[in-house]
Amino acid sequence: xxxxxIPEPGGPEALVWTEVPDPVPGExxxxxxxxSSAVNRxxxxxxxxxxxxxxxxSPYPGLECAGRIVALGAGVSGWSVxxxxxxxxxxxxxxxxxxxPAGQLLPVPQGLDLATAAALPEVTCTVWSNVFMIAHLRPGxxxxxxxxxxxxxxxxxxxxxxxGAKVAVTAGTKxxxxxxxxxxxDILINYREQDFVEEIKNATDGAGxxxxxxxxxxxxxxxxxxxxxxxxxxAIIGMQGGVKGELNIATLLGKRGAITATTLRxxxxxxxxxxxxxxREHVWPLVEGGHVRPIxxxxxxxxxxxxxxxxxxxxxxxxxxxxxxx
Length: 326
Prior knowledge:
Largest sheet: 7 strands, mixed
Strand content: 25-35%
Order of helices and strands: EEEHEEEEHEHEHEHEHEHEHHEHE
Number of helices: 10
Radius of gyration: 19 Å
Shape: globular
Structural class: alpha/beta
Helix content: 25-40%
């Protein structure tokens, strides 16, 4: 098969489409013929040499895919050869075939085409696990998501609105904010021109946000705590703004706040299986009912993954960038 390899870390040009050995499913795994994958910021970090896959897993980038099952490993039940699926991956999605633990498979939602389904696994699992399973966003609460026009952001807006929350977003252009509003965002904050702490407090009569989903990390740490409401929960899922920051613990104590930080890739299989099962139970009916949809900015050939990385680095996209095999 062919896959995107990274012979040496570097810029987008470091991604090389080349022939590699076919993967073989082990016990509890299936082999999926990949129709499409998607570009995530974790892939950019891996390409740069900063986010290597766990030992013993696929060395190729790609944290999600959609495709068809072509072989079953020993002990797999509930799935058959020919089933159309999408999947949360530890890696290997930028390829023609990938091995997936059966617990990380999801059926393609009814009404959604197979290729587009690759836009769902990473964002739905990230948002549902952090915002709902960990931070416990409830109806009527105020939810702030940074980078509202990203793949994560566009899904977070829709899921938070679906459960009855009030949604605030940050984004860097009017076009992106307008799109967030179309998805249901109530409070629109241009982070280039406005202070999100001030804006969220103004919009909530000084209370702040009950839950914040943050992709920036260190750069926003103290400001996020300032923006939290009493009993607020800050969920950190990225470090685009750095890895080390100072925290005003007195402010956090005064608000009885909580900070969590998670990634999906390195979680044990049992944890990822539980997240995928929760997404299938709670999110898939919303997708099939038309209440939530994947937002796709553009689709590129898998062999041109480098261009997909450039698009994310330039941050001009809205939603997901997909990579497809012809």
